[in-house]
Amino acid sequence: MSLPEGGSLTEGDLKRPMFELAWPIIVTELLQVAYNLADTVWLGRLSTDAVAAISLAFPLIFLLISVGGGFTVAGSTLVAQYTGAKSEGSAGTVAGQTLTFITVIAVVVGVIGFFATDAMLGVLPSSEATAGQVIPLAGDYMRVFFLGLPFLFGFFVFSALMRGYGNTRAPMVVMFISVVINIVIDPVFIFGFDANPLFSMLGLEGLQASLFTATGFDGFKVAGAAYATVLSRAVATIIGIYVIFGTSAGPDVQLADFRPQFEYIKKIVDIGVPSAIEQSATALGFITLTAMVVTFKPEVVAAFGLGNRLTSLVFLPALGLGRATNTIVGQNLGAQKPERAESAVWLAAKVGASVMLVTGVLAYVFAEPIVAFFLQTGTASAAQTIDLGVEYIRIRAFEFGFIGVLQVVLGAYRGAGNTKTALGFSLFALWLGRVPIVYLLSFQFGFAETGIWLGMAVGQILGAIAATAWFTRGTWKHSVVDADAAGT
User: Which regions span the lipid bilayer (predicted)?
Assistant: First the structure.
């Protein structure tokens, strides 16, 4: 069984193995955000409309990819529980079944997304300026992204299966390679060899002029960011497949594990469907929020998108601890140690809350220089976007401590295979919290864009309180592989 270097997840002290498991997840998530931030940095140098375009595109993309994302949760949870029960063969079978299942989903979703791009963008109510300037750019980005969806799903599956097994360093290394590739090729695909800021930063204007003369390539603009992401993720997927099949770093997957086996498919579906619904409902919620945001001027849309990307960056410690908790709870419940699983959750919640409180303070204090870094100054539009983004970050900083607890508790529910409970509280935080509060504050009580920022924060706070209160009941302490483990 693969374990963190600091010790066993099911025996001995919890602190060091939890840290050894969590920190590569946090780094991997940081690198994941680096994809988005690289796009934002370079597109911010293209135009404010380009930043707004990916702000609109991402919730719509997330709506479709969330279907496959839910089933990666199932794969991670089952691999963790079978690994904890010392059923290596079953862990490998689950991995094979999950890879096959999600590959099929990726192809289907990619085709649907490509042909439905215009229809999805068409449902968003938008101001005249946004409809004319931003929507067409978002469409260019989305179509390329959907064509490359199997490559993106490939890495998601690899990362989830390795995480469930207890090996979080391999996905981190693979992600690092992919991000480096993305950062290098992103400005080339966006700007080509004409007015490319990368060449200016490196003092290579002469080389740029020669390349432009030879090729005439002036970039793909917004679509170039999507091309760069797809290509770099393709590299990550190829490496990930090699790690699973060509090394002993993860579950032992054999060719026979790809033949459909109803027993395992049923488990994947039972656990994965609520997670898929959860992620889809979350995506739909963000689309609803985006639909409200696009009724404002482009500067508000850009600030909303940039603010979300930055807050996703500062949430990384909480996300990492939540995913580590998923694995630890899964392995301990598989090993029939529910009390140890609960102790791990409370330890992670305390650490998460503390780290996120400190992060919130730093985000509040340094909001202005952070936001300004991602936009070119000197224009009225950019200055206004910066002011709005700073206000957004400072308001949301008050929710950070609650996010640390919420992500850990939701990770515990998922690690137990209790994805219906995780679904319930995610829906509560978003659909009974964020969405209606944003609407009431922004459109009914006259807070305008400030109401959006406030609603985003309050909804998550309410969700954290409710999920933690329910967790204390202890009804989640059941493995979904008890019968299987007994026979191994």
Answer: 50-79, 99-121, 141-161, 173-193, 225-245, 344-367, 395-413, 425-445, 451-471
Show the CA angle centred on residue 284, arms to residues 26 and 186, nearest 5°. 50
Q: Do 391 and 300 meet the contact criterion of CB atoms below 8 Å apart?
A: no
Domain parsing of the chain, residue ranges: 11-260, 273-487
Q: For residue 20, is pLDDT > 50?
A: yes
Torsion of CA 354, 355, 360, 365, to 10 degrees: 110
Q: Cβ(141)–Cβ(226) under 8 Å?
A: yes
- Answer for the pair 67, 214: CB distance below 8 angstroms, yes or no: no
pLDDT of residue 87: 67
Structure tokens, 290:
């985006």
- Is 312:456 a contact under the CB 8 Å cutoff? no
According to DSSP, residue 186 is labeled H
> Under 8 Å CB-to-CB from 120, ≥6 apart: which residues?
60, 63, 142
Hey, what amino acid is at 185? I
Amino acid identity, position 101:
F
Let me know: does 48 contact 299? Beta carbons within 8 Å: yes
Q: What is the pTM of this model?
A: 0.77
Long-range Cβ pairs for the range 312-315 (8 Å, 24+): 312/33, 312/36, 313/30, 313/33, 313/37, 314/356, 314/359, 314/360, 314/363, 314/400, 315/356, 315/400, 315/403, 315/407
